[in-house]
Structures are given as C-alpha cells and as structure tokens.
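Query structure, 247 tokens:
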C-alpha cells in the first residue's frame, strides 16, 4: 500500500506529511514551512489561524498544487500531488479543487453570468443548469447576474467568487482570508454561506483566517507560527456532524 493510503482510507481527503518549503531570496534560504504534517477529513470545515508570515498561505497553496514543496509529500483525494507533472496538477485542480482568493480575480469586462459560464467551461463541467441555479439562489445572486463585477458591492463580488469556486462541485474548497476585506455584516453572510455549502454538498473547506470569529464557523481550528503547526484539533462552536452545537 502506498504511503498515505492508510490515512486516506479512514476518511482523510488531504494528507500532508512532513512538508517543508524554502524560498530563495538572493543567496539566502528563507524557510516558510518547517516539517508540517496535517490530515483533513472528507467533508470537514477546517480553519487555519496564525499571524502574517507564519506559512498558512504557503500551506494552502501547496495543498492546492499551486506550489511544490521543498521536501515532504502531499496527498489530495488519494493522489500524491508532489509526484505529479504540472499538467497533471492543473487537471486535478480543475476536477477536485475550488479556490476563493483574497483578490476575487473576476473578469471586470463581462457580466456575473458570463464569469460563471466561463468557470463552468474551464471546469469542463457537464452538470445541468439546475445545479447552477441552486447555487445562484443560495448565494443571493439572482438579481445580479447581468451586472458586471464593478457594478456590485465587494460582498457581492465575493459571493460570485464563491459561486465560481463551487460551480464544478469540487471535492475541496480552499479559502484564503475570505472575509479579510469585509465589514462584520457581510462577513457573517459569507461565513454562513460557506457553512451552508459545506453542509449541503459535503464539500471539504480549508480556510485560512486571522479572525477568531470567522474560525469559529469551522469544525476544527489549527494554529500556525513560524512555519509550524503550534496547536491543533481545537474544536469550534460547531460539531463535526453539522447537526448539533457544542458549548
């Protein structure tokens, strides 16, 4: 059995094994991750917290196959992405992973509808339009579909980014500070939507955040400092089965 298969067989969709990442700045090696190991259960909503520069964004990008580690291995949905070629990682991202970035990366010259249709085309998703309409309704975008991104609010733009991330029904959603630029009202709306998407479609969400109130929406919280996991398996106010609350 390949290394990592046992962890995946018990319901882990992501397995990170002793991963390091070193950036070269001129002739200086700057470590971003120092031997990080992590398991994420299928259908889990995980929050990763820590100060700026702790390595959490690097970890998120490694899980998403946007970066490759200096050493260690990463398994995503049973596949060792550290041994994949660039083309294979690109295909895995299209099929398995949805990204929500701090910058929404919407195309400003086309409508919300066209942004979502383009994402659907890129994902090569043959899903019927009923699923897309359900997502649009859930995110409150029905009246905004013919607007261009700069004609709607920041919170609405983020909702479009979320719709784009889930439109192909990926196994994993990776969210990078999704409420970082929002006020408290819009932050709550977005976090409620993420929680509902996680519950309704059983999609795994890995979210990085500075905000303890945002992290409380997750099933589990881990904390990072200086490129390492400082504290893990901290429960939130939500239980993992999505049905009961713990105090």
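Result returned for the query:
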């Amino acid at each position: 059995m390949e290394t990592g298969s046992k962890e995946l067989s018990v319901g882990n969709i992501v397995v990170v094994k002793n991963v390091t990442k070193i950036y070269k700045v001129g002739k200086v090696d700057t470590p971003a991750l120092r031997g990080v190991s992590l398991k994420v259960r299928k259908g889990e909503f995980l929050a990763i917290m820590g100060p700026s520069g702790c390595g959490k964004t690097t970890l998120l990008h490694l899980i998403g196959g946007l970066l490759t580690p200096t050493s260690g291995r990463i398994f995503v949905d049973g596949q060792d992405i550290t041994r994949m070629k660039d083309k294979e990682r690109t295909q895995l991202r299209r099929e398995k992973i949805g990204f929500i970035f701090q910058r929404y990366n919407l195309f400003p010259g086309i409508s919300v509808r066209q942004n979502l249709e383009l994402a659907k085309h890129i994902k090569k998703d043959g899903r019927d339009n009923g699923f897309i309409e359900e997502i649009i309704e859930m995110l409150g975008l029905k009246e905004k579909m013919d607007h261009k991104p700069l004609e709607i609010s920041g919170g609405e733009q983020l909702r479009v980014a979320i719709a784009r991330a889930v439109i192909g029904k990926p196994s994993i959603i990776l969210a990078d500070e999704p409420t970082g630029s929002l006020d408290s009202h819009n932050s709550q709306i977005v976090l409620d939507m993420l929680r509902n998407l996680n519950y309704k479609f059983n999609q795994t969400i890995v979210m990085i955040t500075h905000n303890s109130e945002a992290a409380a929406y997750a099933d589990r919280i881990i904390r990072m400092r200086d490129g390492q996991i400082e504290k893990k398996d901290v429960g939130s106010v939500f239980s993992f089965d999505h049905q009961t609350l713990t105090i």
